Amino acid sequence: MENDNANNFQEKVSFIWDLADLLRDSYKRNEYQKVILPFITLKRFDSVLSDSKEIIFKTYDKYKDLLENVENVLLNVAKDKKGEPLGFYNYSKYDFKSLLEDPEHVEQNLTYYIDCFSKNVQDIFDNFHIKEQIAKLAKADLLFLLIKKFSESKIDLHPDVVSNHEMGMIFEELIRKFSEQSNEEAGEHFTPRDVVELMTKMMFVENGIHLKEKHIIRTVYDPACGTGGMLTSCKEFVTKMNDAADIVLFGQEVNDETYAICKADMLMKGEKSENIKGPFSTLSKDQFPNMKFDYIISNPPYGRKWEQDEDIVRKEAEKGFEGRFGAGLPRINDGQLLFLQHMISKMKVDEKSRVAVITNGSPLFTGDAGQGESNIRKWMIEKDYIEAIIALPDQLFFNTGIHTYIWILTNEKPSQRVRKMQLINATSFFKKMRKSLGNKRNYLSDDDIKRTVDLYDKFEENEYSKIFDNEDFGYTKVTVERPLQLNYQVTEEKLDNLYTVKAFAKLAESKKSDPELKLEEEEKGKKKQEDIINALKTIGDHLYKNWDEFEEKVKDALEKFDLKSSFIKNIVLALSEHDDTADYVLDKKGRKQPDPKLRDSEKIPLKQDIEEYFEREVKPYYSDAWMNRKKDKIGYEINFTKYFYKYKPPRPLEEIERDIKEVTAEIQELLKDE
Looking at 455, 475, 495, which one is the last position of a domain? Predict the structure, then answer.
């Protein structure tokens, strides 16, 4: 039975992929989806509308001249086989079969057919840009052939035959194939179903009992919803547990085609398609500005620049926590931590909300103390939002082989988890796929998913599960200074360093616009530079080890030039180099001056006493070092490798030596052959 299902699925994928043969000469490979995806969607709508096609057409014909707006009347008669309202309509007389009866006018008739859809469906096809494709197909004499191929096929795309879940999988397979053709990132569009299932269970596992209550209403939101797979998974999960539950789905998607697929899918399922917003960027154009949700789930883009959203994001960040990005801004080349902040901002205020979000490793550790990423982690951890983070196996996604992580966040932790964070290392929980799909070579079996969820649910420490206090991830970055010790000498090599001193280099520059005056001023400046160098040479090449002594020599030598004290200081520095045997450089109050080149920092865990750490870890090596506590910064990072590190002893030297000899022998044989 399983093989039959797999064959049927592959049969549908193969049929749709065969449609690409028609497009081969007129479209580039990476453009196939611009035709095939909207036409699949159109065929789906065509199939669903077949049950009430005749009555919709008759009703429109009856009322079109009597009523100014016939929309409500048509929505009332547009129903499925069971008599349930469809929520959309098409009042034209055409369908895929009747379009073939007039080959000469297929372009005009199909365009009219599109225009006869209800506005919610027209929005979908506008985002597919289907009319542009119709015109292009007609010009290439392909439009009639394409519709004919759909009509003649034995593949039935009606939702009663091909479930929305299966259609989603077909879409995913197609998008993956199209993306492979053009080296695009398929992962931008959807998340593999096994990963979605794990995320869904992780998000709902803690609320199992409450979800069984009668007639509950719960909202689920995905700010980067793609084709809607995560939203669908959440609804299916809850309704299997409680078919009386009312699960209302909300989503936003930036990609126009993907948004169109998602909205079409929701519409055909009888969901409130108006709750799917797009194509707009969530970061800069949040379409649910005043809404909060019970559950939030997403796979936002990772490693993606957010420069297109930058102006609005920065303005909102200036509002502090009145906006969505009050904790800080990450670097411009990765917006994942912006999405995390956005999702937290969508949690309810006085009620429990839960979040499941997937990221790569960057949000866990990128950014030093005081930088945007660290400040965002600091805020999330100190607010006690992070309940658990799960490290997944690599090669789970179609477009990338990297490791990814599921974050479980909440605004109301169970008592045993308060001020705690659980890390789960599930990197070894996977099965190998019989056939790779892009970069996806591994998948999560039912057992792998259950094992991961059980580790979370039991909340115990073992080889794969570690439980930490929130403070364990924090550290104080302390600046460690060492004293400035320099020797000073006037040599040709060190005199060349003067040209790196801004004030010295500027002597030979001119802002005059007149070329003659400019040249004259520059020559005058170069002469002054030479005079300063010649004056310094009068000091001789004696090696000095005391700043004050050498500074006096420089001041005397350059007295006639009337230079500022800062200029003199920079000249002294240019003629110096570090020397552990030299005198300390002191300020006017006799305090040791720090050497910027020797400045270092120590990351001291929050739970450790800073003074004790310094005495134990620094002083034994640098007895004259001191801490500048005014520069202290608190940082947070989550380093999975450190917490789950397993020591692997190096290979025996004999084994390595044997391998080297074998490789060397192979190389020698190859050289002989040449």
Answer: 475
What angle, rounded to 10 degrees, do the helices at 547-557 and 565-574 form?
120
Q: From CA 291, how far away is CA 345, in angstroms rounded?
A: 9
- If residue 667 lies in a helix (H) or strand (E), which one and from where to where? helix 653-673
271 touches 324 (CB < 8 A): no
> End of a domain among 515, 546, 578?
578
Does residue 469 fall inside a structural domain?
Answer: yes
Same domain for 102 and 218, yes or no, is no
> Is residue 564 left, alpha or beta, with left meaning phi > 0 and alpha meaning psi from -120 to 50?
beta
Same domain, 233 and 346: yes
Domain identity same for 358 and 244: yes
Contact 224, 359 (CB under 8 A): no
pLDDT tens for each residue of 625-642:
999 999 999 999 999 988
Residues making up the chain, counted from first to last: 674
Does the pLDDT value for residue 483 go beyond 90?
yes
pTM for the structure as a whole: 0.86
Q: Cα(638)–Cα(374) distance, rounded to whole angstroms?
A: 10
Q: Under 8 Å CB-to-CB from 431, ≥6 apart: which residues? A: 442, 443, 444, 445, 448
∠ CA 607-470-336, nearest 5°, is 125
Phi-psi group of 278: left, alpha or beta (phi > 0 → left; psi -120 to 50 → alpha; rest → beta): left
Q: Looking at this protein, which amino acid is placed at residue 442?
A: N
Decide if 251 is inside a domain.
yes
619: Cβ contacts below 8 Å, ≥ 6 apart: 625
Are 217 and 351 a contacting pair, CB within 8 Å? no
The reported pLDDT for the residue numbered 179 is 58
Chain-centroid distance of CA 86 in Å reads 36
The answer to whether residues 133 and 6 belong to one domain is yes
The per-type count for the chain, helices as H runs and strands as E runs, is 27, 16
Same domain as 513, residue 414: no
Domains contained in the chain, number = 3
Angle subtended at Cα 575 by Cα 573 and Cα 578, rounded to the nearest 5 degrees: 70
Among 628, 632, 543, 629, residue whose Cα is nearest residue 582: 543
Band (pLDDT 50/70/90 cuts) for residue 178 is low
